């Protein structure tokens, strides 16, 4: 509120500094927002491709699993899946995109050779291999999708935050500062005019007094 | 229960006529094409209901309180398979018993693998028990000892007295090294196949050649049975060689080659699995080339093994049918029935699971291997 500000020259200078800083911040944030949006659009395109691949892989994996369950029986498939205790290792590191920390997920031992899946080769068949391979592919797609979609969501959050900051500067902070500045300038000018008027009055009074004393 | 027996003078004390008569009766009760046509149009619950009016009635009723839908169908099928095959072992005597048992030990292999997998992954005892198919020779006490085992080593210990024990002990070091069940599972399957073929004495005279496209009628029952086992081993080797070649895994041939077949020797196979084209060419040139030709074309075009699997299944089923009609009173109709029963169980399960998974009637029909 402009009325809360003391109309002093010191405050005016401070407000000028704040306006300058805020305008610079506003420009920087606008550039950041635009940059983030561009990054987001790129990631969005990638995410759409990844999501499409993921859905296609899921369809294939589910179909192969259904086929394997149908032809070999649930008991056989459950048995083959139980032949391996070891889980794929997931390592999460991070990278920085314009100040936004996004995860980089790396996986090891997802895709396996036939001799690494635990079950014996002699007592199983390729329906089980194909279902296992399809699910390994699906898991890799899920890990990639997790990385891309998390990055996308984090960028989206950051864009939202930056947009709110830009808007706050543009529609609240800077207008308030401009208003305060105008208020102080107006008050100072008014004070100046009052001061001149007062000085003129004093001068006139002094002249009147001098005239009176010279008459006496 | 008193059982009527044909007291014949079969070599090795076998009661061939009695067992064959019982098996013929069982074979007559198998589902026919019309039944499959009906089943394909049914949902899982309708299939369970349909099975209640067939040979599977006892099992569906017994398991109905514990399971439902497709699970009920699958468990009832496995239970029924176990009962029928155990009956055959009960009926058979002497050499015939040994011949049937050798074939049915595949279920012992299955049960030991199931116990190993369950214990290895710390599964609940009841879960492991549900997945057992008690159609082999292992007694309930032996199976229970495996289920109660605290670790993989204890399961191997519980298998002592079976033909699998020594091989498991030998493979245990490799298991400890890799912490993968792969060496143990392979050891079990290898023992099963090698024992299967090694116990069949080939009769003198020309061997019956069936799967090579030429059928000679001069083979004795044992001869024909021996040929069938060789073909089965060859098919397993073909399937596994193609799987290894496709996956690009660098494996010792001992991990996937079963001795006793005619198609590959270890040195040749080790070379062939490194080059898919050469491997396919060798299979095409082999006695099984004509049968597998279309499937191999599909493999080359679509890079899918499923056609090859199906072609192998069809070849074995056709061979099984032919086997059943060659020598009416011999081990051949018995083995043929085992194959037909397994096929029936597999087909019903495929229909039920396929319907549950939303596969179309056409897709299910394509996957079925009809007798």
Provide a descriptive summary of the structure in words.
The complex is a heterodimer of chains A (216) and B (371). Chain A is mainly alpha-helical. Chain A has a single domain, classed as Helix Hairpins, CATH 1.10.287. Chain A is built from three helices and two strands, in the order ααββα. Chain A has helices spanning 9-72, 74-81, 126-215, and strands spanning 89-97, 100-108. In chain A, strands 1-2 form a two-stranded antiparallel sheet. In chain A, helix 1 packs across helix 2 (74-81) and helix 1 (9-72) runs antiparallel to helix 3. The longest helix of chain A is centred in the last third of the chain and has 90 residues, at 126-215. The mean pLDDT of chain A is 90. Chain B is an all-alpha fold. Chain B has a domain at 104-183. Helix content of chain B is 67%, strand content 0%. Chain B is built from 18 helices and no strands. Residues 1-9 and 203-217 of chain B have low confidence and may be disordered.
- The residue-averaged pLDDT of chain A reads 90
Residues in helices of chain A, as a percent range: over 70%
Main beta-sheet annotation of chain B: none
- The coarse silhouette of chain A is rod-shaped
Name the chain pair whose interface involves the most residues: A-B, 31 and 56 residues
Largest sheet of chain A, in brief, is:
2 strands, antiparallel
Number of helices of chain B: 18
Structural category of chain B:
mainly alpha
Number of strands of chain A: 2
Determine Rg of chain B (CA atoms, Å): 21 Å
Spatial gap, N to C terminus of chain B = 34 Å
Query: Oligomeric state of the chains?
Result: heterodimer
Class inferred from helices and paired strands of chain A: mainly alpha
Regions of chain A with pLDDT < 50 over 5+ consecutive residues?
Answer: none
